[in-house]
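User: I'm writing a short report section on ligand binding and want a predicted complex to refer to. Could you take this sequence and S-adenosylmethionine and write out the structure as tokens? A short remark afterwards would be nice.
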Amino acid sequence: MRTIDRFAREVRWLMNVGPDKGPQAHVTSIEINEDFVNSARANVGVAGLSDRVSFLHGPSSEVLATLEGQYDMVFLDHWKDLYKPDLQLMEERGLVGPGTIVVADNVGELFNPDEYLGYVRACGLYDSEHRSARIEYTNHADAVEISVHR
Ligand SMILES: C[S@@+](CC[C@H](N)C(=O)[O-])C[C@H]1O[C@@H](n2cnc3c(N)ncnc32)[C@H](O)[C@@H]1O
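Assistant: Sure. The structure tokens for the complex follow:
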């Protein structure tokens, strides 16, 4: 990130969010597979960002039940049939609230997203927007749903 910021200052302007508007973010990551937790922790350590990321090991429903406080942004990218119950659990616990942005990956038709999309669009808590995309590294159609908590 430092290299990107230096490039944008010294070589060519870039339209990324930049260091002033995007400082001090802390990421909380939930992962069920311990090997993946260890790999991710090692990668983030090499990037020098260990103090910016918490790695929580366990099934999302169990870990979410231990968290407190409202998050600015939630990124859903685990088992697709867990998006809806996990989001509802976050609502119950106040982890999402006014202003929280919920981004759900893989909500293209291929992933049978109707239950999640039906909920997030009709429950009355969110303003929700569908963005077409491609499944990573392929040409297959996919989408993300971006839902802003009212
Ligand atoms: C698609 S990958 C995430 C990729 C990641 N967002 C990225 O861009 O590198 C999904 C991950 O969710 C984890 N996962 C699946 N079900 C889970 C659950 N119930 N609780 C926690 N993690 C889960 C899997 O082990 C896998 O590592």
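A remark for your report: The helical segments are 2-10, 18-21, 34-46, 60-64, 83-93, 114-122. Residues 30-33, 36, 59-60, 77-79, 82 surround S-adenosylmethionine (CB under 6 Å).
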